[in-house]
Amino acid sequence: MPADTVSVTGWGRTAPTAARLIRPRTYEEAALAVRECGPRGGIARGLGRAYGDAAQNAGGAVLDMTGLDRVHAIDADGGTVLCDAGVSLHRLMEVLLPLGWFVPVTPGTRYVTVGGAIGADIHGKNHHVSGSFSRHVLSFELLTADGRVGTVVPGTPLFEATAGGMGLTGVVLTATIRLQPVETSLMSVDTERATDLDDLMARLTGTDHRYRYSVAWIDLLARGRATGRAVLTRGDHAPLDALPRGTRARGEPLSFRTSRLPAAPAFVPEGLLSRTTVGLFNELWYRKAPRARTGQLQRIPAFFHPLDGVPHWNRVYGRGGFVQYQFVVGHGREDTLRRIVRRISARRCPSFLAVLKRFGEADPGWLSFPVPGWTLALDVPASLPGLSGFLDELDEEVAGAGGRVYLAKDSRLRPELLAAMYPRLDDFRALRAELDPRGVFTSDLSRRLHL
Amino acid sequence: MKDAFGLPQSLLVLGGTSEIALATARRLIARRTRAVWLAGRPSPGLDEAAGQLRGLGAEVRTVAFDALDPAAHEDTLGKVFAEGDIDMVLLAFGTLGDQAHDERDPGAAVRVAQTNYTGAVSAGLVCAGALQAQGHGSLVVLSSVAGERARRANFIYGSSKAGLDAFAQGLGDALYGTGVHVMVVRPGFVRTRMTAGLPEAPLATTPEAVAAAVELGLRRRAETVWVPGALRMVMSALRHLPRGVFRRLPV
């Protein structure tokens, strides 16, 4: 199999390391790659959307799984799909929407693979209703460290270790996923503004249950009484009769159309995203949102994946890259959330992609991120002075409140805090020690955090 | 592994009693560094340095290392890397020599060159190979402004640092894209034991300031770091002075 030594980073473009990139085209090639990956092990990689070092393996092998991209079978009556791990959610939408089905969970980008969705146990705007991705996985085939392939079903330790296990239990080869029925490919969206953080939390607590999808964009640069002001966008798949008669949309209610702008340039000067530019952007974004609007029809990309419209948007942070920080704290810990939002606002972190969401029930994965409560995600340029120490302080707040940070986004957590954040870490380590005693599955993330 | 800010979890210091190196180690231990190797000639000073860093919470081990014995470098340093990944190597050994004395004693002058240059070539290549095999890591090389343009007052030391600096730059280019980052640090006059008693040069700095510049350089994945930063401009002017003028400068 051809293998190139290449420099690899996550989506945040920090901490590059070199690895042999192997692109298996068959399950046998994948098994061979795992058996022969050498002393520094291997890790599966999908479309590289994890922000940190989860899909890097310095000095070892990285299995680019996007070569395994077949959709094997769709049960258009029962609403399930069997596909390879390297299939993207974008591809699934292309093939499923015309049949009246949608992926059960989508994150803020549809350019993630099914394997990555299981490995990170991703969540979306419907977490408060539908839970994480792995809750909709009926089974998957896992290639383990011994080079064998087995079927894994929910309720077993291997399933729960693999869901959110960051690829460290094995390589997912195929998965069977339960789908969400839809009548149209459009979203019916309600938008409203919240004047501050308390208003925002009250609105989310009070009315989230009415919506299948809910998220709030939050202005972390707003200060004073406006601290935590936000724009809520919530909605559901539009039913057929919500589409005006005689329009093209009504004629082809299930067509999936996407459009993309030109890609971000390869070189962007450092400091383009400064407090001034981001402050201006945030002000405009907040002002342009209607105070209250209901039933607006939006396409799926506009509602779920606005950033996918700009290929390589991660380049706008310049060569220094950026850090995405996402944490969750439980219900009853609103004070911690308030304090953190105030601290970020006081520190003037130029973050224009901050979102707040209310999670539903916790998911079964041992290292799955969601727990019932509040999750805040923000992007910050890595070059911001003092950012490392500041995020360490936020970690202490989060851990002290029984919360956690999201491993799929992490690139800088202090390893000592991990066990407090993930109580089932010991079970995970024990299962790994038994299943993979030689540590075949290794990533920069697992080295850094001793997973 | 280094984190998103380039902060290492494990550190190997070559020249384990260097004040600049220890200031850097203290700073990095306060961030993410937990495992430290101090390589140097066995001495009470080395043990004392190790003890001091242990007091900060790091797990510190010492290893016998002599820049003047390049034949042993592969073996000595290979054992360190065999114990686990090294995220950052700080090549900090060096000697100033005594210019006036060394001009009359070629043997002593050669020892300065062997320590600062050939010793560093050997140790640098051994570490570069090990870092490349692990696919990540930073090699931070302590050069000096003295290597930018050799001065009458200390050209033996200066020429050795010039060689080291050129070597490290070339090594950095050779390792580009391999996951290994080479950073050349060019401090000006640093107030340490090595410079005690010497007349202080303009823009003199401290080991702590060099350590801070190293941390910043790691975050930026910089290839060259001047300490203080203003020296970059000063030296770029000095570099272009005609010989006759440069010779007469009171530096």
Automatic annotation (TrEMBL), chain A:
Keywords: Oxidoreductase. The keyword Oxidoreductase applies. Residues 14-182 form the FAD-binding PCMH-type domain. It comes from the Bacteria. InterPro entries: ALO_C, FAD-bd_PCMH, FAD-bd_PCMH-like_sf, FAD-bd_PCMH_sub2, FAD_lactone_oxidase-like, Oxid_FAD_bind_N, Vanillyl_alc_oxidase_C-sub2. This is FAD-binding protein. It comes from Streptomyces marokkonensis.
